[in-house]
Amino acid sequence: MSTEPETPIQSPIAGPAPFAEVAVGAAEVRGARTFHYAVPPALDARLVPGQLVLVEFGKRHLHGVVMTRSDQCPVADPKPILDIIWDTPFLDHRRLEFARWLAGRFGASMAEAVENLLPANIARYITLYYVPRDGTPAAAAAALTAAERRALDRLRADGPMSTAEIAAAIGKTVAVKGLPRMVNEGWLRRWTELELPAGGTVCASLLLATREVDRVIVELFRAPKQRALLRALANLVGPVPVKELLTLAGAGHSSLKALQRAGHVRIEHIYRIPEPPPATPSTAGLREAGSADWRSLETFLDRDGHGVCVLLGDPTRRIPSYVQAIEKTLAARRQALVLAPTEREARALYEQIVATLSGQVAFSGDARTPGSRVGLWRAARAGEIDVYVGPRSAVYAPLTRLGLVIVDREEDRSYKEAAGGRVQARDAAIELGRAHLCPVVLGTATPAVETFYNVESERYRFILMQSDDLLRQTRLKVGRGWGALGPGGTVGTVDMRTAPVMGHGGMLSEEFFTGLKDALAQGGKAVLLVNRRGSASMTICRECGYVFTCPDCDNRLVQHRSIESLVCHSCNHRQPAPRRCPECGAGRLRLWGHGTESVLGALRALLPLERVDRIDSNLPIEQVRAVAEGFRRGAIRVLVGTSLLFSVEAALKADFLGIVQADIGLTFPDFTAPERVFQQLMRLRQAVLGGDLEGRMVVQSLMPDHHAIEATRIGSYLKFYRSEIAVRQEHDFPPFTRLARFIYTHRDATNARTEALRLAELLNGVLAENSDSSVQLMGPAPCFRARERGAYRWHILAYGPDEQVPPLLAVPHRGWTVDVDPVDLV
DNA sequence: AGCACGCCGACT
DNA sequence: GTCGGCGTGCTC
Predict the structure, then answer these.
(1) Segment A361-395, tens digit of pLDDT
(2) What global pTM score does this model have?
(3) Protein A251 CA to nucleic acid C11 C1', in Å?
C-alpha cells in the first residue's frame, strides 16, 4: 500500500526546521496520518510543537495541533500555516506521541486522538475574525462579487466580524468561500481567537494591600455596602465565591461591580475541586490492612521507570494497597491516575481514597458542565491535582507529573469504548505509563486472559494478595492453592439436560430450589441471576412452528407479561402480545425460555409467603435502588435480577446465589463469551457470598462440562485460564494475534454485501502487495446479528502479528466502523 | 466536508 | 463521439 512517504525533499531555506508536522482536525482521516505545512517567517519564532494552529486542508479551514517541527517535508509545495490560535502549547511531547499511538493502534483519526487530550469540543470555541486591510487595491474592486462587496462594506462600517456573523448578515457562501479568497487577495486580514467557556465559580479577590483597605474604607463613607464587602474580603483569605460574599456582607451585585470598577476587587471564574463527601464508616481505616500485600507492591514500585504489575485480590485488599501506593507517589511529588470501569465504581473509589489521603483528589464525574470541565482540565494541566480518579475517559487527563497509574478491575469490558475511536482505556493507560516512565498497577480478582498471558510470559509482574490467615482458610476449604481461591461459599452445578425440574416452565431444578429453601429456612437471603429480562425469550406457534421475530432486527421478540407485549431487546420495538399465529391462524402459542419476570412469577407460586422482588432495566433507576435497599435491610428476602445486579453490588450480601441459566452466550460465535461468563459469575459470587465460608452457589447449565462453567464450579481462575488460552491459541485469537474487525451497516441488503466484498478485495490487495505479511482475513460475512434496526450488517475480521495489522486500519472509507481488539463479535 | 476524477448510460 | 450523474478517494 502506498502509505510510504515520497522521498523527502530537503528544504532550500536555511535556518531551523522550516516545516511543521500537523495533526489536522479532520475526523475522517483514519490512522496516525499527519500533514506537513510550511512555517511562514512571521510565525517562525513562535511556532512550537503542541500549539493549536489554523491550517487550510483541501478547501476547508481547520484547526490542528503541531506535532513536530521538521527539516523535511514529504510533499514538494506545502501550504503555509495560517495562524497560531493559542500560543501556549496544549500538549507536551509525551502527550503528542501518546496521541499518535492512540490513532495508530486503534485506527482512529489523529483529530480524534488529539482532541481527546484537549479540553472537550475545542473546535467549537475557535472563532475566525475578519477586518478590512488598509489601502485595499481599488483597481481590483471589479474582481469582487456583489456579495463580497457587501461583506467588505459591512466590515468597513462595523469593524471586525466573525465567520458566523458574516454568514448570518450576508450569506453562507461568502462566509465560507469569499472570505478566504478576500484574505488571499489582500482585501482582508484574518485572525483567530480561542474563547474557552469560563470554568467554575465566580470569585472575588481583593486587589488592595491590608493597610490600604482601611484608607479606602474611610474614603467610601457614603457607600456602606461597599465598605461591608471590603471588610468581608479583608477578613477572608484568597478568592471568595461571589455568592457567599454577597450573603456574608448583605450587599448586592451593583456594590461589588462598583468596587471592581474602582480597581479594588478582581472578579473571575475560578475552578475549585469540589469538596469531598464526609467520610463514612466504610471508608475509614483503610490503612490497617495487609502489610504483607503492601510489601510486595512496594518492591515493585521501588524499581525505577515503567513496569506493569497485576495485583490479584478482592477489592477489600486491593484498595488499601492502592492508597498506600498513591501516598508513596505523592511523597515523591508526582501525580497518580486512578481508573475504574464505570463512573459509579470510580466514584466509590474516589470516596475511599479522598477519605484516607491528604492532597488534592479530583473525581472527573464531578465536572459536568462545559465550564467546569474546562476548569478541571486547566487545574490538572497546571499541576494542581495530586490524584485524578475517573472512568475510562480519565486516561486523557492532562497530568504532567504522572508517577503512578492504577487500573481497577482491569478485566472489565467497559474500558473499551463502544463508539468513536474505540480505544481500550486499560491498554491506553499502560501506554501512558510507558510514556511517563512510571509504574502501572492493574487490579483484579479475575484477570483478563490477555493480561494473565502477559503475566505468564513475564512481561507483567504478578502480586497475589492475601493474608496468611485467608490462605489457610481457603486451603482448608478447597485444598487447591491460589488458583482455586473462590471468593466465598461452596458451588455446585446442575446439568439442566437431565436434572429433575419443578415449577411452572421447569426453569428451576430441585437442587436449586432445595438450596434456596434451605437458605430461607435458616433466616437467610438469596440472590438469583437471570440473564434476561421479560418472561419468555421465544414465542412459537405449536402448529406451524412460526417464531415471532423483530421486523427490523434478526432478534426473537421477548414476551413481557407485565405490559402484555412482545419486545425486541435490540431496538426496543414493541407489539401487543399475540393470541394467535399470524401465519396459520392457530391459537396454540408456546412461550419458550424465561426471563426475570417469569422466574419471579414461578417463585411467587412456589414460595407464596416469601417476600420476593426483581430488578432489571425495565424499571426506573430509583426503583432499582429502592428494591436493592429493601433487600439489604431484609424486607425483601429473594432478589431476582439481570446483570443490573452489579449496579447495586454493595447491597447483595446473601446466603444463597442461584444462577438460573449460566450458559447464555456460550453458544454464540464469539470467542470472548466464555471469559464474560466466567468473570460475571466470579464477580457475583464475590459480591453475594464474599468472605463467607457457609454460603451456597448453585449454577444451572445446559453445558456443565464447558470449561467456563467447570472453572466456575471449582472456583479456579487458573483452571479457566489454562483451558481458555488453549482455545485462543488453537484458533489464532488474541492474545496470540491482534484482531481488527471492520463492520459495515446499510439499509439495502445488496449494497451492504457489495460494499463488504469490495473492502475485502481492497484489503486483499494491500496484503498481496506486502509479501511478508502473515495477516489473515476472515469474511466478509454477515454479522451474527445480521440485521439490526432495519439495516444489514456485514463484517470482516483481520488477524495477524501486532505490527502488521495497523496498516490495514486506514483502508476502509467512511461508513465503515473499525474496531481493534473488539470485545464481542455480534 | 468539499472537490476532482473516472466510469457508465443517454443524448447529439 | 460528448455530456453529466454519481460513486470513490484525496486533502500537506
Answers:
(1) 999 999 888 888 999 999 999 999 999 999 999 99
(2) 0.87
(3) 58
